[in-house]
Amino acid sequence: MKRAVTLALCLLFSAGAAHASSGRFCDRSQELTAAEQDRLLRFAAVLRDELAASEENVALVSRSGLDLSRFNIRYSHAALAWRSEPGLWSARQLYYACDEHRPRIYDQGLAGFALGTDDPKLGYLSIVHLPPQAVFSLQPDTPRSLHLLAAQYSANAYAYSLRYQNCNQWLIEMLAAGWGSLADGEDLRERAQGWLRNAGYAPEPVEVGSRFWMLASYFVPLLHLDDHPDEDRAALKLHISLPTTIESFVRARFPQSERVELCHDEKQIVIHRGWTPIAEGCKPADGDRVISLAD
């Protein structure tokens, strides 16, 4: 796959000033040291073990990407993890294919999913284990996945527009199609968004905080504002589908869902169970499991 963006940078606000074109963004690469690669592969192995411990074959997974802490965002990219056969898990997700200039659907191994981070020294993963009644209608369906794929990508896509789409928006529309038992068809995205509105899906606004970041849309081809309502642009608050918003919606709809958060720094991996977040800097709390990376 040539320069396919698996979107650790699904949300692109802070990259706007650094990357003046989609070409420069697509050419970005990161050389990992042997120690960094080993750390991330061990991190991916913990993710695999946590998924394997579940009796269900589908889960939600999210990862951190660029540092978006200025927007109070830890997770930028979500995917649907599914077990196609015993011991074999993949992450089905939307990515932006730079050479084709369009979004695509990609089934990626868990190691590649974990490696798609911008900071090999500090990373976070979130897993939401779904109850059986939530999993039943979510088995990956390739035709329906493709009918939910928009023709144009926008990293900051408005959650209720058909003009663009980002990775998290595709995922929540996949959940809507499954949980709403929506028939396949060319208008599936429109019906999925209608189902989400009726189900009370309401993404919390991302407070941009400065018109400087709004101006990034004029210089970065992967950012757009023309799908957002005028009142949102004026208020500098954009309603965008994010992993945390999706998790909150899932928790409200299926309270039996269970969450596991993983993080690593240069010394350890922390496994934290529950809906409260791990402390910044990957600091373990009482009851968390800690795996040393010095072994």
TrEMBL record:
InterPro entries: UCP028477 (IPR014547). The keyword Signal applies. It comes from the Bacteria. It holds the Pfam family DUF2145. Residues 1-20 form the signal peptide. Keywords: Signal. This is DUF2145 domain-containing protein. It comes from Duganella flavida.
